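Hello again,

I reread your note about wanting to compare the complex against the isolated chains. To keep things tidy I'm splitting this into two emails, and this first one only covers the full assembly. Below are the input lines as submitted, including protein chains and any nucleic acid or small-molecule components. They are followed by the predicted structure of everything together. The single-chain runs will come separately.
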Amino acid sequence: MIRLENVSVGHGGRAVLQDVSFHLARGEAVGLLGPNGSGKTTLLLTLAGALPLLSGRVTLAGKPLDSLRPRERARLAASVPQQAAPPELRVLSVALMGRYAHTSFLGGYTEEDRAKAGNALAETGCIHLAQRRADRLSGGEWRRVLLARALAQEADLLLLDEAASGLDPARQAETAELLLRRNAAGLTMLSAIHDLNLAALTCRRLLFLKNGRLALDGAVADVFTEEHLSEIYETRILVSRHPLLGAPQAHLAPGAPAAPAGGSGPGRTG
Amino acid sequence: MNNSSRTAILLAAAGPVSLILACLPGPAPIPVREVLSILASAVGLAPAPADPALATVVLGIRAARAVLAFGVGAALSLAGVAFQGILRNPLADPFTLGVSTGAAFGACLALALGLAAPAFLPLADPLPFFGLLGAFLALLAVLGLARSGRELKRETLVLAGVVTATFLSACIALLKALDESTVSGLVFWIMGSFQGRGWGHVLVFLPYLALGAGLILCFARELDILSMGSTQARLLGLSADRSRLVLLLAGSLLSGAAVAVSGVIGFVGLVVPHLVRRVQGGEHRPLAVNAALLGGLLLLWSDVLARTLLPGGVELPVGVLTALLGGPFFCLLLRDRREAA
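Full-complex prediction:
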């Protein structure tokens, strides 16, 4: 679906990502993790075509990313951005923007577009907000509207940047279930997540960025270990099993006695 | 029926009514019945009026001014909608951005040097063309000035606009001082007026209004998306730079042509989009339609006031009235924004 070869990206003369290579197959659900400032958002914006490459190559659906016209690109990859100031527009108008890449130049939004925007809002539980002003929503409501906008885009690849952050536990679980359902139906997902446990529950493969480089790439069971996590985040992290689902879950241990020395140098890729 | 269509219908109905009412007052005392029968004869509903001189006053002066004022008000408001949307700046309008003064300078320079439009443009009157040119160049200069930092700040943008406008006003004053001895011409360009305007000006102005309004309505969806910022626009598949350029050109076109026929009239493009947004929200297609209609009404009535307020047939420049209205409004907006930030 998307392939990166030796990609470097920077803004303002500083390289934020260096020499990143990986490949996402169609239908994968991949989590993008790493400390603050490790380049997760930059990577997602690059894949969405919003930032230019310094070097390297990105191939989206078999075509070089920079050869795609903006509309073609937006039909292949949809984004849920981390930050977006809500405009003075109604929620339905924002969701309709997801359909922009499917409209013709003079055609305008069709009834079908309106129906799809409405369905996307219903799917993220925001249909009751459709006529409300976006700049008067709560932070959590606005995040779900942005997710609906991306779903309305009907792209094969969904790039999520902290899509579930700022949501209450029930909404977070709903959003995670929605994404799992969409993934089972064939949607490819790359999702930047701070919440390690949510990542372990919703993704099957994890990429870890650190200081702009790909530090680790592998199946959840292989990379979600105490050694790897503790080294990448530079703090003591314990891992246990989820009591119901069996997925590994991470625990911070602030205030605990210092960890016994050991386990140095976990395997690296990249 | 939703809120915005209701507003549009109300405003559209108020237009013709206002046009008729605007023909009633004036320094020459013409009875209401007479004015109405002259207007009726003009549209073929009544026989030709008895006194052709009165008909000239009503049709040639009052009606033409009212129509032109409506068109200019619509143009300035549409330009305000476009500038506010693209620059994501609620303080932006042709006047605060220095675009209007740029247009006035372009037109004055063309007048002073006796420039003609390029041969490939078969224009009856080259002034709006040079107004457009001046408007666009001033806009580029202001954007360049404001961008010297890393990003475009709301206040910096308006500051750059005011600086540019002040500088260009001085240039206009200099041109006029070199060109002629009276200050009346200068006042026309800097404060704006419809005095002495007639159907000829309406005809010169209309094509620009039609083109600019058409472009803005065609790009209303893009304006919605651009109001979320360039990064969002790119994520959604919009070529942000191209749409922005088209819309900036459309805004300059409208401001340039408006200034070429009526001088610099401030704050209409600032106040009107805000009022409309309050009633019906920020969706740009209904916003553009309603702002154009309301802006037309506002300027039409401002002009009626400007020519009837003072006794003895003395006229105020209409720009004085709009500035009296718009200045305090601008301060309110500035304060609101500071509190919100």
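For quick reference: Residues 169-184 of chain A form the longest helix (16 residues).

B.
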